[in-house]
Amino acid sequence: MKIKKLEYYDEEYRWKLEAVEFSPNFNLLVGVSGAGKTRILRAIYSLKAIANGVFLF
Description:
Strand order of the largest sheet: 1-2
Mean pLDDT: 83
Shape: globular
Helix content: 25-40%
Largest sheet: 2 strands, antiparallel
Number of strands: 2
Structural class: alpha+beta
């Protein structure tokens, strides 16, 4: 599975990740502290777990 675009809202923590578009071969997350790099990775992890049938509560 390839992720082409990601947009995410977490109701528990009440934060929204605006749409991020990924290139097909290589992606690098760069930004200052607090820009949202870790949130993008956590969102992908959460979506992966949900897709695999694991419910994160």
